[in-house]
Amino acid sequence: MLRTVIVDDESNSSESLKTLLSKYCTGVEVVAVADGVEDGVSCIERHDPDLVMLDIQMQDGTGFDLLKRIPSPSFQVVFTTAHDEFAIKAFRFSAIDYLLKPIILEELEAAVERAKRMVLNRTGKEGAEPLIENLLAFDNTNPRITISTDKALEILPVMDIVRLESDGNYTRFYLNDGRRIISSKHLKHYDEMILGQNFLRVHKSHIINLNFVTRYMKSEGGTIQLSNGDEVPLSRRRKDLFLEVYSRQ
Questions:
Q1: What is the bridge-based pairing of β-strands 51-55 and 161-167?
Q2: Is the pTM of this model over 0.85?
């Protein structure tokens, strides 16, 4: 059973979530419901859960405050939140699961299944702490991104990424130090996440870091040369946008 603690200071929300988990998510046992940060810390210490469903904004603090109170967290976390742009961006960069309120059943079921897999594979116990550390250290001006590979989780500064390239259902990351990392996520997963960090999608298969562009070579669509020597094709329909953005660099 996936031992679960719910932390939410709105009783209607926590009871609704408990009902959904009990009725529709097999293999889940809600062992405690807490109504805030202080109560949540006590429940987690007492029950040692596999999963914590954690609200962000509560009367006595935030979900981030709670996590800072837990040394070496081994549980999986799924945040529940209203639309909070900063928090959602932090979750995406840190590979932390989240659900927007009101919670949609299909999304809840998917989040619970992911948590189950992480716990059963033991990567959840090993992986939760670095993910949470990266979340709590999130800096909107120089974020660190969590990249999921087949063997591990890589956490690195976004600005060390020279470019990303689609490889079927995988994404290849090319780093400034010459390393290459293959992510088990497709390129679309990272598209919206990093485009506000001086990255630009210049082709259906390529996203580049504009800080590393050294030359634009005119051709049918165009070719972009990067500081590591790589050359990336520029699609015709993205040419005007690239030239406009690059001219402002």
A1: unpaired
A2: no
